Amino acid sequence: MIAFIIRRLLVAVPVLLILIVGTFILMYTAPGSPFATERGIPPAVLANLEAQYGLDQPFHVQIWRYIVGIVTEFDFGPSFIYRDQDVNDLIGQGFPVTLTYGFWSFLAAVLVGGTLGILAAVRHNTWLDYLAVGMSIGAQVLPNFVLAPILVLVFTLWLGWLPGGGWQGGQWQFVILPVIALSTSFMASIARISRASMLEVLTSNFIRTARAKGLPMRRVIFRHALKPALLPVISYLGPAFVGMITGSVVIDIYFSTGGIGQFFVASALNRDYGVMMGITVLLGALTIFFNLLVDILYAWIDPKIRY
Amino acid sequence: MIRHSLFATSALFSMALCGAAWAQATHPETGEPLAEDQTFQYRLQDQFPSLDPQLIEETAGGHVARQIFEGLLTQNADGTLRPGVAEEWTSEDNQTWVFTLRDDARWSNGDPVTAHDFVYAWQRAADPATASEYAWYVELSQIRNAAAVIAGEVGPEELDVRAIDDRTLEVTLGQPLPYFPQMTVHYTFMPTHQPTVEAHGANWTNPENIVSNGAYVLDQIAVNEFFHLVPNPEYWGADDAIITEITGYVINDANQALNRFHAGEFDMMDDLPAGSYPRLEEEMPDTAHSVPRLCSYYYAVNQSENGHEALQDPRVRQALSYAINRNVITDQILQAGQAPAYSFTHWATAGFELPEIEYATWTQEERMARALELMEEAGYGPDNPIEINLIYNTSENHRQIATVISQMWRPLGVTTVLNNYEWQSYLDIRGNQNFDVARGAWCGDYNEASTFLDLMTSSNANNDGKYFSEDVDRLMTESVSEADPQPTYTQVEQILAEDMAILPIYHYTQNFVLDPTIRNWPMQNVENNWYVRDIYRAAE
């Protein structure tokens, strides 16, 4: 197992390197410049700007410096647009925010979605099942950029219960709406996946055996059915968590939470090379990390899997 | 523990007393009863990239700079000049300007604000090492040697701005410029505190480091979320400022922001959702405002070597301009009080008289008839159609306007291909003249007509259509030293209309919603410069 983890981590290094080089190339081939303004910049000033950010160097020098900066000092360089800050500052401010509401959304999606799916499967073809399926289909077709304005309309404008945005250091009032908006569609997916897999497990031989032994239903479900039924859900969790981080762009735009989601789009539009790279590396690393975590969980839950 | 609660009780008690005092407070000038809550909150669409006066390059940062820094001069509600750090300013020849600084101007750390601080800031703005994207503004102000400093030919200390003593600043220009004082209002010319900049480098504007000299100071900032300003007790006019807190919320989505405005979360927002103004004006006449804004919307026509052949003929450009029914654009698409434009300079520019432009006086039928004639004379028309590549940056309004105009051009035998690009690519494409017709807009950097008309000179980097007229170049050079340049400006506008250098479309308005309890908002300031120290909240 340890060898497996080490091997996976070692593979992650070239993957990240390829990601960095690929993004770097894409970034440089895109038209436009971070310093293009409507008014035009005097050539000497532009030359200084480019020198300040190392853009006057040949491509391979730039990319080499960038990678060396990350490896030796964990320095992701300056932001090309937010000139009073560097990339580490910006991500350091925004990422905890994204992680906080991402974590709560994840928890809500797993707990509510999982419970709903399992209940629906256990009470198959009853009103509870129909309700759960109906709700999850409804939630699935409602994208968060539609849900977010509706939530603000209802809870802020009409009811006046919750603030329509902001973060204020993560006070609970400010967390609720973003979490609802972000978690709903994931909740629905988890509910559907867990329902389907629970239904399948419940009709399998070993469950029939357990029930034939006369075990109470509760015990059958919690001791025998739950673990195998959760396997497909777990394989979905890794991408789901990363999906929540990337999906946070909508949350940040609609709820002004100040997370890093904002930068996904803005850094590309502004040609803020530094932030764009920093975000890409961060997301790449997260994706690798969560996939690894899921694989480990898998091995732990399913004795058939050996690495 | 007991001591602690005792302290808390007395603090509460004194706060209650203060509150009671406030409840009865009235405005010193208007006598209006003031609200107890004197906080001001507003929405900004995007996070400002910087608060360093010499690095700011966009409106949102400029608004904050006007609260936390103070330049030599500031503006009254109507946009006229008023003393800032300078009490007096004089010049005998409009070329050497002497500013006398007030002796009670202080930085937020208690240091006096001196002429040296301005020398430092201005040299810093021009110095290529600062890499300020607004360095061009220093050159525009005509300070002697500015161009050479910016080009890196001579050191920043050669910029001709000198501190005669702590309270006297002398600026020498390369040529007389009667509106130079107006230009000092701009954030690029606000002072910076040298020891702070040198001690903290790029991070000097962080709340824990910043030293500023305005009525407010930066207290807190969370990128892409909000910022918070509190009064600066060292400010010379601190006693006159009534608003006790300023909070700006960054809310990207305009509809979301409007909902939150309706929910009472803040007092002011501009950049309203496209098309929402007529409804807002009808539902909330005392909250929705439309005031002139010093920007003009136009289409640039590529007259460079790689431009469309037909568009090199002024008759074709005239025909295209005449065929545009501007009233349809202002009354049916924009619907927020914008004025149709037949000339470039915004009608509300200070001291500017809208020139007589012949085709402006015609009816649209007359214009259309003349357009058809002109096309025929030029050898084009439905029998010999032309295809034009019209580019604009991605935006709902720009798309609608471009679509409507392409329909208006159809009877002339003009087929228009619409292409939209996101902003950074757009600047690239337009700046390299890879278009036939390009959407453009220009906002005045100072309140004087030359801020618009200079754009049409051949040396101007923003003359994207590469229009060239010897007469316009000459007249604009002459206008600088004229006591009354208006006749020259009229002449220039007439030449532009004759050559149809650009196709003017409309003059902007600033549309915004403002909580009706907020008073003294500078509605007459066409540059949209507001100073929170002048406003207050009246009791409801």
Textual characterization of the structure:
The complex is a heterodimer of chains A (307) and B (540). In chain A, 77% of the residues lie in helices and 0% in strands. Chain A has eleven helices and no strands. Chain A has helices at 2-29, 43-52, 59-73, 87-122, 127-141, 144-158, 172-202, 205-212, 217-255, 261-270, 273-301. Chain A starts with a helix and ends in a 6-residue tail after the last helix. With 540 residues, chain B is α+β, with helices and mostly antiparallel strands. Chain B is built from 17 helices and 19 strands. Chain B has helices spanning 2-24, 59-68, 115-126, 135-140, 146-150, 180-183, 194-200, 254-262, 277-283, 314-323, 326-334, 364-378, 396-409, 423-431, 450-453, 470-479, 486-499, and strands spanning 39-44, 73-75, 81-83, 86-91, 96-101, 161-165, 168-172, 216-222, 226-231, 245-250, 268-269, 288-301, 339-340, 386-393, 414-421, 437-443, 502-514, 518-519, 536-537. In chain B, strands 11, 12, 13, 14, 15, 16 and 17 form a seven-stranded mixed β-sheet that branches. The radius of gyration of chain B is 25 Å and the shape is globular. The model of chain B is unreliable at 1-23 (pLDDT under 50). Chains A and B meet through helix 2, helix 4, helix 6, helix 9 and helix 10 of A and helix 4, helix 8 and helix 14 of B.
As a whole number of angstroms, the C-alpha radius of gyration of chain A is 24 Å
Largest interface: A-B, 54 and 53 residues
Give unreliable regions of chain B as ranges.
1-23
**Cα Rg of chain B:** 25 Å
- Provide the structure class of chain A: mainly alpha
Mean pLDDT of chain B: 91
Architecture blueprint of SSEs:
The complex is a heterodimer of chains A (307) and B (540).
Chain A: H1 2-29, H2 43-52, H3 59-73, H4 87-122, H5 127-141, H6 144-158, H7 172-202, H8 205-212, H9 217-255, H10 261-270, H11 273-301
Helix pairs in contact in A: 1-11, 4-5, 4-7, 4-9, 4-11, 5-7, 6-7, 6-9, 7-9, 8-9, 9-10, 9-11, 10-11
Chain B: H1 2-24, E1 39-44, H2 59-68, E2 73-75, E3 81-83, E4 86-91, E5 96-101, H3 115-126, H4 135-140, H5 146-150, E6 161-165, E7 168-172, H6 180-183, H7 194-200, E8 216-222, E9 226-231, E10 245-250, H8 254-262, E11 268-269, H9 277-283, E12 288-301, H10 314-323, H11 326-334, E13 339-340, H12 364-378, E14 386-393, H13 396-409, E15 414-421, H14 423-431, E16 437-443, H15 450-453, H16 470-479, H17 486-499, E17 502-514, E18 518-519, E19 536-537
Parallel strand pairs in B: 1-10, 14-15, 14-16
Antiparallel strand pairs in B: 2-3, 4-5, 5-7, 6-7, 8-9, 9-10, 11-17, 12-16, 12-17, 13-17, 18-19
Helix pairs in contact in B: 10-12, 16-17
